[in-house]
Amino acid sequence: MKNYKLAVVGATGVVGQKMIEVLNERKLPISEYVFFASCRSAGKSLRFGDDVYSVKELNEDSLKDNFDFALFSAGGETALKYAPIAAENGCVVIDNSSAFRMYDDVPLIVPEVNPDDITKHKGIIANPNCSTIQAVCALKPLDDAFKIKRIVYSTYQAVSGAGSKGIHDLENGIKDYCQNFDEEKISDSECCKTANYTLEKFKYPIFNNCLPHIDSFLDNGYTKEEEKMINETRKILRKPGLAITATTVRVPVFNSHCESINIEFEKEFELEEVFNVLKEAPGVIVEDDFQNELYAIPTSVSGHNEVFVSRIRRDFSIENGLNIWVVADNIRKGAASNAVQILENLIPTA
Ligand code: A2P
Predict the structure, then answer these.
(1) Could you tell me the distance, in angstroms and rounded to a whole number, from the CA of residue 159 to the centre of ligand 1?
(2) Mean pLDDT, range 146-170, rounded to an integer
């Protein structure tokens, strides 16, 4: 069996670090790893299993060096500049940014949902948006069974999805609150209105807040995150005209995204059938026992690679309507483990 050479670009970032953790767990037939980041991290030590590697600065020649595969998680600009160089040099890139996701010749892959699209790649494969990945894992089997007519997404997204700067904003907000803790003002409406520290990522403090604003605003009033969920869902489910709307919200949770998804089907369904379809779905765990107050929450889902579905119930306000609650570790299934699964699909097992 061939042993492969793999690059991880953005190896020092939140997703890059998780990719390295997942690669170490999966033990793929890779004989050579090279870890890249920006000049800021060049020379830093990075632990991979029992070994310590030195991080290399990415430059225009870095990926011309006989790489078989590269996992990119270094933002859209870096991907646009360096992924084509890698692909031209025979390397297959799996990119976590949104730069290439909607290109016709770039497959957008969730291995449980559309693995057959992988073979259509021309050197670049896109990892979908974190919120889209977890949603389509639950939606695809439901679409196969009952034909989805319309989707309404409402998300509750963790700060880890905004990278290390997003995590710092929540950490700094908590520290500031604890330092200035005043029992008499514990529920003061003025609390945390402004930040006494430098916000690195968000426009407003994320601690004690919910921000209905992820990525930049478009002229039509939607955010790019909402647009990504809509367009990527259509592409992955191969339903270009599907009616979808979305509201994406950043919440003060460190890790794991939650989504309330309202679905309208063309076909009638029994709730029991929905449970059975979801229980059979690859990569999905149904955790739903409302009588015992059992449902998926970020703190129990973080660290898992599966997508958890709870609160499965009929929407009585429309015909053939369903509500579900979908939770997944956005850094694992929403990014790193999905990318590594794509890699596993590319590597012949024989
Ligand atoms: P660095 O740590 O050197 O800045 P996050 O979004 O979690 O902060 O991670 C972003 C990742 O992308 C980091 O590993 C970061 O490296 C990397 N990165 C950012 N810009 C570049 C670039 N121009 N070339 C290579 N890696 C980059």
Answers:
(1) 17
(2) 98
